[in-house]
């Protein structure tokens, strides 16, 4: 069962990238990454219980490394248990509305993200209240000959830099994962 962990983590990270800003993007001709500045960051923590009973904690941090009028570069640092994954960078175009479905389709194959439902809700994390929009979506990915499907509910807030993600619940490889915001900061 431990062999499924990297696949589950990969899909969870992919879901995070696609979900960040998704609810805001669906409601307006806006790109939530336009509000980000070099040095802005967000961090998240999740915990999943594997079928063998083992609990694995994962932390993610997104940091804005570069920005110009056309795109923002975001570094993503991920650690799961004692395993630190190689840092990755993504580029998000700023000269058009943010569309995570486009990002997943650019990976090739028969990939798609579709909205199932949406709404508004206030989310409380560590005595802090965040006014959020939420969206529930189904993501299908065909990667390296393997097909993955996940259903995610994502809460975003304009108060949070780097895409606005506050909370995410997702089903990954038969496991329910809840990811919560643990910190954020703006360029000083």
Structural notes for this entry:
The chain has 188 residues and is mainly beta. The protein has one domain: YmcC-like fold. The chain contains three helices and nine strands. Strands 4-3-2-1-9-8-7-6-5 form a nine-stranded antiparallel β-sheet. The longest helix has 15 residues, at 5-19. The chain is globular. 37% of the residues are buried. Residues 1-5 and 23-28 have low confidence and may be disordered.
Approximate shape: globular
Largest sheet: 9 strands, antiparallel
Amino-to-carboxy terminus distance: 44 Å
Strand proportion, as a percent range, falls in over 45%
**Low-pLDDT sequence parts:** 1-5, 23-28
CATH architecture: Beta Barrel
Q: Percent of residues in helical segments?
A: 10-25%
Give me the strand/helix succession: HHEEEEHEEEEE
The overall pLDDT, averaged over residues, is: 77
What is CATH's topology name? YmcC-like fold
Helices and strands in order:
Blueprint: H1 5-19, H2 22-27, E1 41-49, E2 55-67, E3 71-80, E4 83-93, H3 100-105, E5 112-125, E6 128-143, E7 146-156, E8 165-172, E9 175-185
């Amino acid at each position: 069962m431990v062999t499924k962990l990297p696949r589950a983590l990969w899909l969870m990270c992919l879901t995070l990238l696609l979900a960040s800003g998704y609810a805001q993007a669906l409601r307006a001709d806006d790109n939530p990454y336009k509000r980000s500045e070099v040095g802005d960051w967000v961090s998240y923590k999740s915990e999943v219980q594997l079928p063998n009973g083992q609990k694995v904690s994962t932390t993610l941090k997104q940091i804005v490394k570069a920005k110009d009028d056309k795109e923002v570069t975001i570094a993503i640092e991920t650690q799961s248990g004692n395993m630190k994954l190689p840092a990755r960078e993504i580029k998000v175009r700023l000269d058009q509305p943010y569309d995570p479905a486009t990002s997943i389709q650019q990976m090739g194959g028969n990939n798609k993200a579709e909205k199932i439902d949406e709404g508004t809700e206030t989310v409380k994390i560590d005595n802090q209240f965040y006014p959020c929009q939420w969206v529930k979506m189904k993501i299908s990915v065909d990667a390296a000959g393997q097909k993955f499907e996940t259903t995610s509910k994502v809460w975003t807030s304009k108060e949070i830099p780097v895409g606005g993600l506050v909370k995410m619940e997702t089903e990954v490889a038969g496991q329910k994962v809840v990811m919560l915001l643990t910190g954020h900061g703006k360029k000083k």
